[in-house]
Structures are given as C-alpha cells and as structure tokens.
Amino acid sequence: MFKTVSVIGLGYIGLPTAAMLASRKLRVIGIDVNQHAVDTINQGKIHIVEPELDMLVHAAVTGGYLSAQTNPVAADAFMIAVPTPFFDDLSPDLTYVEAAVKSIAPVLAKGNLVVLESTSPVGTTEKICQWISEARPDLTVPTDSSQPDIHVAYCPERVLPGRVVYELIANDRIVGGLTPACSEKAKMLYQTFVTGDCLISDARTAEMSKLTENAFRDVNIAFANELSLICDELDINVWELIKMANRHPRVNILTPGAGVGGHCIAVDPWFIVHSAPEQAKLIRTAREVNDFKPQWVLQKILSTVANHSLHKPSVACFGLAFKPDIDDLRESPALHIVNELASAYQGKIYAVEPNVDQTNKLADNVELVSVEQGLKSDIIVILVNHKGFGDLDFSKNSLINVVGPLRSAH
Question: By CB atoms within 10 Å of each CB, which of 94, 146, 364, 396 scores lowest?
Fold first, then answer.
C-alpha cells in the first residue's frame, strides 16, 4: 500500500524514522527547512548524535531509498515530526505543525495518509483537518466525512535519546486515528518497522497519552528535586538519603539534577496545564519545582564564587546537554544555568561538553573548551552526569556537584 513516504522534519525523531522506513525498502523523501541538514543527509551522513543512526542513514542513502530536500513532493503517506514549543505565556506554539501541514497541502492526493508525530496538545490532530480543508477544499477530511479522501492520525514517539534506533522498533506505539479506518491505515504504516504492539485508539486519547507519560515522569523528578532542596536546607546528603530510601521494596525515588530539559518532559506538562488549568494543580506544581531548580543551582554557584579566596575565580561548567551522553541542548537546564551565570558574573566562564564541537547557544562571554582546559578552572560545576566525568580528578578544584555520584567511562 505504501511505496513512498515523506517525513517532514529531519531532527531527532524525523531522521531516525525516515531511515527506519527506508531500511524496509520504502522510498522515503525527507523534508526539512535546514539546508545544511538536507545536504548532510544526502551525503549519507547525519547532523545529530545518535548511536547506530549514522550507519542506518548511510545504508539508506547509498541504497537509493532515502533522500532529503527542502520542498515537499507527492507521496503515499506524510509523517510530520516538527517542533512544538510554547510561547512566553506557556501556551502551545503550533506554528511549525501548521506550516508543515500547509507545505504538504498542495501535493496531497486522494488516498493519502497524514500522521502527526509531534508532541501536541489535545485537539491538534483535528486542527490538521481544518488546515488541510482551508488549503485544499477539493479534498474531504475525517472531520467532515466518514469516508474521507485524506486519512489523518496521531502517533506519538516514545523513544529515549541514545536508544532511538532500538526503541523505534521495539517500543509499543499508540495509533490514534480520527476514524477507525484512519487508525488501521496508520497502523499498517508503522507495522512496516515496529515489532512492538501498535495499540489502536482515538486521536485525542493518543495525544493525551503522550502528554500524560511525560507529566508522570516530570512529577516524579520534581519529588527528587524538591528532596534535594530540603536536604540542602537540613544538611543531609540527598544521594545517601535516596539510596537508603530506595531499599524499601516499594520505593523508587529518581535522581535529582540541575533541572529538567529536553523537548518533551520540560514542555509537555504545560500543554496539559494550558488545557485544564483548574484541574492540573499537581502537574503545574511539579513543573514549577523543576523550573526553579536551575535558579537554585545558579545561586549555589554565585555563593561559591563570592566566598572563594580569589577575587574573580574562573568557573568551568561540565555538561550542557539536557541529559547524559547526548548532544541535544533543547530546553537544557545546564545551558540555561551557564548563560544565566554569564549574565550575573564577570569572571572567566568555561563550558565543557564532550558531545558538542561548537554551538551558537552560549553567551558571548562563555568559552566552549576541552575537558583538559576545564580542569584548570578554580571552580568546577558538574551539571550533567556524562559518562567519563567520574574518571576525572577534581581534587584540586572547588567542586559543586548537583548530579550525584559521577559515572566512569569503563
């Protein structure tokens, strides 16, 4: 049924999905507004860091099954995997989704399937139908017809950065069509590469499921982060406390950190809060706890700087990514802390991120340096528990560690 699939958005989800479909001998056309990403992919290379993805993309491109370009073309199915950030008032920003839908509208044809993968507030999949109808009144959509020309569904990703290739295949997927026929058609597409179960639901339940999964994780992380604040106030080692408490057979407290980052956990709960502000009290509070943690860390750093024996000690912040062992800086609390420090402190500030060669997201007065250079700083702040940091000798520095026991590379 599907010979050609177009994936709109070739980032951390879109590119692995495109490569996975291409590995199943489907003709895949990736679409992205980033010309550098398009050129890199067409060379059989990748512009992001993800284990095994480079080999998958190289094989797909050299085999003639995957190509990338900036403008959409006709296909049997369209998968949308573009960002869904929020505005300053924390309301959802669907600008990218709407732009993606309107970009493919001119090339849509009767019988096509449109699947949204981007994490979105409840009701977004129905808005896709509205945008298609506005651009293509000659085509019927599921909100207007029980037998539409265009099938529309929502299928959220459930992958962990660093394990995307494996989890795209193995994880269960929720397929939420706007009609049962839409669900079945989308399920057929995913079953070309998913070995986990494809669970049929409706679009709104699928949208809410994705938000719920990440809000659940956010609430649990907030408990750990709040414990770290309490323990600091009471002069208790939070790492030792959690280790002891987790010996209870029904307790599993997570590890506190510098905050919560990434495009999912740091964003998705706000979509729920925005949709039901009076009911989402716990979810809102958890978000506020996790959003506060970077400010708490910043004050820790500034206090250490103020009490240091040197007038303006140099500070090296180890880790910029939003979680260990990846290069993804989206919504990273570590990056936020470093840039806020740069605004508040005029001394030398260095950033150490082994997974990033260069970035334009750092403040002008922050220098991205090697691990060796960072170790020469007067104060070292561990913001991300990258593998290998546990092998370093920090004994000659003033150390602020907000991530707990460090991990060895071995």
Answer: 364
